[in-house]
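Entry 14. Ran structure prediction on the chain below.
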Amino acid sequence: MGAKKMSAVIKGNMAVYDAKTKLSLAKLIFLGILAGVFIAIGASSSSAATYGITNTGVAKTLAGVIFPVGLMLVVIMGAELFTGDCLMILGVVDKKIKLTSMIRVLVVVFVSNLVGSLIVVLLVNQSGQLDYGNGALAASVIKTAYTKINLGFVKCFCSGIMCNILVCLAVLFAGAAHHIMGKIWGIFFCIWAFVIAGYEHCVANMYYIPAGILAKTSDTYYDAAVQAGMTATQMDSMTMGRFFIDNLLPVTLGNIVGGMLFVAIPLYIGNKHEIQD
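Output, structure tokens:
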């Protein structure tokens, strides 16, 4: 991309992030809900496409083709996504944005992303989509939620770091493009890579895990999961409390570290002189 081009992209992003701190609470909430909806749509669609594929590599490759639509919608429609907004630290280290202002935006957007994701969880659950394959999709959704809840803190944290390195790079690539097709391709390959690698994204998990927890409350979907090899003990262990503590917390911390310490701050240091010229 070149140092001059990269510094121009960073400057442009800092201007955008400064504008975010001036958005009203209502706008932040609305745009955050939209982003949660968009990412959940990508997650639910990729799940529907891959539930019947037993080869992990093939399934993740196909999911990676579909899931990026979520971030494409976020960027092109101007919604507010927590993981991408971690790049706001650029403005903080350049003293263009107050730390408290960044924290306000991140907290509001995070909660709003969760609300948007849960709306899609409810809609998908009632839409009949989980009936695919005589409940095989529902069983897959439940199993995915169980697996994610039981990854362990270190795996969630490290996977979250890797995920947001790619998500933030996708946002920067999109910002460097002047046309929609450039933004789409800039997003596509980075997000495809993170999905294939199986990294953990806090907002995507706001769909994946609650979708499984809700699905198991249906007798039909519960039975389908049992037939797919899950035990009653496993499903009973899936709770919203465990979702927040055992997955969402470490993944979110990892996403913050990945976006801020592995992407934003190194890029700022490497381009500091060009940015300040």
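The chain has one domain: 3-272. Will compare against last week's run tomorrow.
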